[in-house]
Write a structure and sequence with these properties.
By secondary structure, the protein is an alpha/beta fold. The protein has one domain: Divalent-metal-dependent TIM barrel enzymes (TIM Barrel). Helices cover 44% and strands 15% of the residues. It contains eleven helices and ten strands. The strands form two sheets. The chain has an eight-stranded parallel β-barrel with strand order 1-2-3-4-5-6-7-10, surrounded by five helices. A two-stranded antiparallel sheet has the order 8-9. α5 (134-161) links the parallel β4 (107-110) and β5. α8 (209-216) runs parallel beside α10 (264-276) and α10 (264-276) crosses α11 (294-310). It is globular and about 60 Å long. The N and C termini lie close together (12 Å).
Length: 311
């Protein structure tokens, strides 16, 4: 099982500096951000798509250092209620598919998107998570029928034409955030779309990632290594749905490194379960912590992953 790192972990470094950091950390692969929610400066989509010489020279920097680009990540809101933001996000998505084909990279990581209100020109994403009151169900049906389905039908055709597959991150705030909603999307797209399994977004929803591995089986196309700590007392008091952001109040949960929210034994079982279901792809480290501890945090996660993947 290949150990990878997401290039955004090194968003303050140049391409060369990012590759140096990967080599120093002892990883053999990188998941490269191409835009949208990714701020990493390592990939100029327009230049790489339209200049074959520059694309070859850029790619050789990775190959010459023994670093494989195992996935491109263009996560963003592809169905944004604001049409300008939506258009930009979709452009990056479709251009990333093109670049993946040119570089012979088989996996593109993305998100499913979250629309606004179709009839009212909703400027902001509207994430429906409750079956009551009745208007919520009406809005949810409109989102899927009028926006989600048409886009992903078109996208599935494009994905297939480029010979790649897309791994959708199960992410709250998007229309696909758990196995049930993934199967809804799968009915639209078929197997060109699978899952990027990031356990950190499941724990606080009350979902067990190990159970999810068994449920999704061969539809797991990519895995992120990120953990989530749980404040059980706050969870019992206020639950996992929490809009407090940076105000200093106690929270029920937060993202962290593997081993900081759940112990090594849990992650060993997680990796064993992936193997049991024939997952042979990468485990890609997504750093969650203070900027000044990036190198230490990634090194700790690499060491943990090497221990449990060698077992």
């Amino acid at each position: 099982m290949q150990i990878s790192v997401i290039s955004d972990c090194f968003d303050n470094k140049s391409v060369t500096g990012m590759i140096d950091a990967c080599v120093a950390q002892g990883v053999t692969a990188v998941e490269l951000g191409t835009g949208n929610f990714s701020s990493a400066p390592h990939c100029n989509l327009q230049e790489l798509l339209h200049d074959a010489g520059q694309r070859r020279r850029w790619h050789e920097q990775f190959q010459s250092r023994g670093i494989q680009i195992n996935a491109l990540n263009c996560s963003g809101n592809l169905l944004d209620g604001d049409m300008q933001r939506r258009t930009r996000a979709q452009q990056v998505f479709f251009e990333t598919l093109q670049l993946a084909e040119l570089l012979e990279i088989g996996t593109v990581v993305a998100m499913s998107g979250c629309p606004g209100e179709p009839h009212n020109g909703g400027f902001f994403p509207n994430w429906v998570t409750c079956d009551w009151q009745p208007e919520f169900q009406t809005l949810l049906a409109q989102q899927w029928n009028q926006i989600v389905t048409p886009f992903w039908q078109q996208a599935a055709t494009q994905i297939a034409s480029h010979g790649v597959r897309v791994a959708i991150e199960l992410h709250p705030g998007q229309v696909v955030y758990n196995p049930h909603t993934f199967w809804q999307l799968h009915q639209i797209t078929g197997d060109v779309v699978g899952v990027n399994l990031d356990p950190s977004h499941l724990f606080w929803q009350g979902i067990d990632p190990i159970r999810v591995v068994g449920a999704l089986n061969s539809h797991i196309y990519h895995v992120h290594a990120k953990d989530c700590w749980i404040n059980e007392d706050e969870l019992r008091l206020n639950g996992g749905l929490d809009t407090r952001h940076g105000d200093g109040s106690p929270r029920a949960w937060g993202h962290c490194l593997w081993g900081e929210g759940h112990d090594e034994a849990y992650w060993a079982e997680f990796v064993t379960t992936l193997r049991r279901h024939n997952y042979t792809g990468a485990v890609s480290i997504e750093y969650a912590g203070a900027d000044e501890t990036v190198d230490t945090g990634i090194a700790t996660t690499v060491a943990l992953l090497k221990r449990i993947t060698a077992a």
